Amino acid sequence: MADIQNLEIELAEVKKDVQSVTHRTDVLEKKVERMDEITNCLTKMTTNMEHMVTEQKRQGEQLDKQGEKIDKLEKQPAEEARYYKREIIKYIILAIVGAIVGALLTYVFKQ
After folding, report:
1. pTM over 0.90
2. How far, in Å, CA of 23 to CA of 30, rounded?
3. From CA 89, how far away is CA 2, in angstroms rounded?
4. Residue 39 and residue 28: Cα distance in Å, rounded?
5. DSSP 51
6. Where are the alpha helices (DSSP H) in the chain?
7. Up-side HSE of residue 58: CA atoms within 13 Å toward CB?
8. What are the tens digits of pLDDT across the range 30-51?
9. HSE-up of 15 (CA within 13 Å, CB side)?
C-alpha cells in the first residue's frame, strides 16, 4: 500500500512537472511565432528600404541631369551676350576705322 501511495505521489509530481513543461512550451511556441512575425516584418521592411534606396538613386540621377540642363540654360544667355558684345565692339571698331579712312581719303582728295 505504501508503494501505491508513493507511486501516486510521484505520479502527481510528474503530472505537475508535465503541466509546467507544457505551459513553458506553450509560452515558448507563442514567442517563436511572434519572432517569426517580427522576422517577416523585418524582411518586408528591408525589401521596402532597398526599393526606396533604388528610387532615391534614380531620382538623384534625374536631379543631376536636370541640374546640368539648368546650368546650360543659365549659361546660354551669358554666352549669347558675350557673342553680341564682341560683334558690337567689332562693328564699332570697323566704323571708327572706316571713319578714319574716310576722313583721310577726304583730306587726301581735297588737297
Report:
1. no
2. 11
3. 128
4. 16
5. H
6. 2-110
7. 6
8. 999 999 999 999 999 999 999 9
9. 6
